[in-house]
C-alpha cells in the first residue's frame, strides 16, 4: 500500500526501526539515528510515532506531514500538517484521490 502511494507520487519509502525489527522492510530503508538521514521537500510520516531516534533522521525535511491514529503521538509536535486517522483508511483514500486526478 505504501509502495503504491510512493510510486504514484514519484517518491521513495523509508521506515522506522520498529518496522525493520518486525521484518516488514529491509534495514536499508530505516530512517533515523541508526539508519539513513533524509531531507526531502515533502516527508509523509505514515504511522510513525515520532520516536526521537526516527526524528533525528528526518528533522531537516522541508515539509512534514504526519498521519497517525494517535492524536497525541510526538510526530505531531514536529509536523507542519497532521491527520489523525488510521493509515489503513487514509492511505487508500490518498491513492484514490491521486488516481481521480490522473484520470
Describe this structure in words.
It is a single chain. The protein has 103 residues and is α/β, with parallel strands linked by helices. It is 39% helix and 15% strand. It has helices at 2-9, 17-21, 52-58, 75-78, 87-102; strands spanning 42-46, 63-68, 81-84. The chain has a 3-stranded parallel β-sheet. Helix 4 (75-78) links the parallel strand 2 (63-68) and strand 3. The radius of gyration is 13 Å and the shape is globular. The mean pLDDT is 94.
Write a brief caption for the model.
This protein has 103 residues and is α/β, with parallel strands linked by helices. It is built from five helices and three strands. Helix 1 runs parallel beside helix 5.
Give the SSE layout:
Layout: H1 2-9, H2 17-21, E1 42-46, H3 52-58, E2 63-68, H4 75-78, E3 81-84, H5 87-102
Parallel strand pairs: 1-2, 2-3
Helix pairs in contact: 1-5
Offer a few descriptive terms.
single chain; 103 residues; alpha/beta; 3-stranded parallel sheet; 3 strands; 15% strand; globular
Summarize model confidence as the mean pLDDT: 94
Strand order within the widest sheet?
1-2-3
State Rg: 13 Å
Largest sheet: 3 strands, parallel
Q: How do the SSEs run, as a string of H and E?
A: HHEHEHEH
CA-CA gap between termini: 20 Å
Low-confidence residue ranges: none
What is the global morphology? Answer: globular
Count of helical stretches = 5
Relative helix content: 25-40%
Helical/strand content category: alpha/beta
